[in-house]
Every structure is written in structure tokens, then in C-alpha cells.
Amino acid sequence: AMHRAIASCVVTAPASKASSVAVIVPTSGAAEALHRTFESLSVPGGRFELVSREDFYARLHERLPLAPPMLSPFEREVLLTRAASATIAGGTPAPFKLRPGLIVEILAFYDELRRRDKEVADFDRLMTDSLQASVEIDRGAERLFRQTQFLAQAFSRFESLVEASGRLDEHALRRMLLAHAGPPAYARVVVSVADQAADPRGLWTADFDCLARLPGLESLDVIATENVLAAGFHQ
Cα(46)–Cα(21) distance, rounded to whole angstroms? Predict the structure, then answer.
């Protein structure tokens, strides 16, 4: 039933823009299964693209005129390592030993923060306000406070390094997409995945915000099962 609902969204797209329909799916396996359903329903192949979240951003980047290249995961780790080292050299020590594996986890934390539509300044303000009163009497709070100071400064330096590189990461790409006034990559987007709260392969708050404000996007359809909606996704 869900596959048929997705197919209905695809076939009802305006004929002149039928090739610019993106269907966001959780995995390549889900894309294959959905493609078989479309074939059985005789949905014309030129009407759609089945893409994962990562593929969707890659397509948007490819079709964005004069967009700088994307930073690779390794390049982002190098920039974050430089930002962390500069933060320590600047007088804000890390309350833990910086190991390569930990850099990966810190970068994942930064990405989650930004994907939840929070700025580094928001993180710094909220954590500092909640911890500052307990710093003098609670060793745990004092350590978290120092950790927050280190991470906030390292993240700010990291963002400056990304900007100075002339390249893009996912978060800079979203800003560029929202500022672009030219023809959109897609006229219609069909979302067949839930959010991160319901599915680790789902979309984040920043993804939904980007889709809701993407210039030129004429239609956004979100399709979900009753069980997913009952889990709170409709909110």
C-alpha cells in the first residue's frame, strides 16, 4: 500500500517536469524493491529518481551551478584535527586525550548537532548556562564545562577552516541550496522515510527544514505507515 501511494505521487507529477521527481528511500535495497513495484504498475522510468539521503544531497550538489567541490570525510577529519590542535594551543585544553578515533566521534557529534538544526553558539550557550552554577561544587559539572568550552571553540575554528578551504560540507551545502535562486534540481520530492527518532536511516530536522524552504520546490509529499505515525512522527 505504501509503495502504491508513492507511485501515485510520482505519476501525478506534471508531465513537463516528470523527470524531476526525487523519491527519498532508506537504503539501496528499498530502492530496488520500490523500483520493481513501479515496473509492475507501469510507472514510466523517466518520471523519477530513487535516492537515499546521501544520494539526494549528492544530486543537489551536482545540479547546483558553480558549486565548489565537496570535502571528503577524511579531509573533514584533518580540518577538525587542525581546529582541535589550534584550540589547545590557544589556551583551551581538551579534558581528554585526542586520539584519531575520538576525532571521528567528535566530528559525528558536530554533524548531529548541526543536523538537529542547532548552531555551535546554541550548543555553547545552552550547555554553559546549565553547568555554570554547579562548576564550583561538582567535579563532573566542572569537567563537562571544560569539555563544552573546548568543543565549542574547536567547532568554531573547524567551521572557519571549512569556509577558508573553498569547499563544502553537508551543512554549507544546505546554506548554499537555500540561497540559490535558479532552477531547482527537483520540482517534486517524495519522502518515504521517517525522521531519526523513528529510524536511524531517516531524515534529520535540518533535512526537513531544508526541504520545506528549498527554492523552486513545488511539491513535498511525506508518506508514512500508521505505525510510524503512531510513534510520534506526525508531530
Answer: 9
